[in-house]
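forwarding from the other thread:

> can someone predict this with zinc ion?

sure thing
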Amino acid sequence: MPGTFRMALLFFCVFLLFDFSNSLPVEDADIIYLWDDYASNNIDDDIDNVIDISDLDSQAYGSPKNESGDAISEWTETSLMNPEEMGSYLEGDILIPNLSRNGMRDKTSRWSKGIIPYVIDSSFNQDQRDTIRKAIADYHRLTCLRFVPHQKEADYIIIKNTKTGCWSSVGRIGGRQEVNLQSPGCVSKKGTVLHELLHAIGFMHEQSRPERDDYVTIQYNNVKPGAEINFKISDKKNTNDFGIGYDYNSVMHYSEFAFSKNSKRTIEPKVRGIK
Ligand SMILES: [Zn+2]
């Protein structure tokens, strides 16, 4: 796991430890709560400390789709893209459930004290369960986040493979929430599990960072028609890098061929020698 990723998680964890008393979401159905605005120390103002994806309208919502499952079922280690990049959801693998009547917006928040109750569905085989447990072990070894077996907690994640695609919501959405890891494609690499769990923890994609155009060039000419949404930049006022610089090696960074229509690169580094 790259050092900067560890650093980012460390910052995130430190923040969790000090800030959970006031990070519970207020009642506002228009916004998604991910984390507070660490950089501006604006930690008491819940309204300012949100990720607002309302501008994505209906594109921000999804339900599992067969075409994603078909693509992932054909995924192999030699495929150009990672399985988590094959979904037809927001940025490939972020699922915002259709919970509200207008179907436009939703909210999430952080996990209290950095503790994430979880269940691994019995439908995974032993090897697949081992891959998930190794990913969880990485979090326990490298961060202060703790995945604990679900008991009676109201909010928890269920890791399952009964739907198509690799996907998760971003952050805690309240109650039971699913992290889907279609098998075997989404549990072939520990990195895919780490990636989806990071969404569930509350992180977006690295290449969505506000300053990403300083680091990579998006080759829109090579992007599948309709997939441009996957390269949208997050609004600076609503996202937080926790003081950690752009990380080409982040497990949250898409690969160079993500959403390519022609097997040519869609993401190219601006810095020489970077892969
Ligand atoms: Zn993702």
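The domain at 8-16+52-204 is CATH 3.40.390.10 (Collagenase (Catalytic Domain)). thats all i got for now
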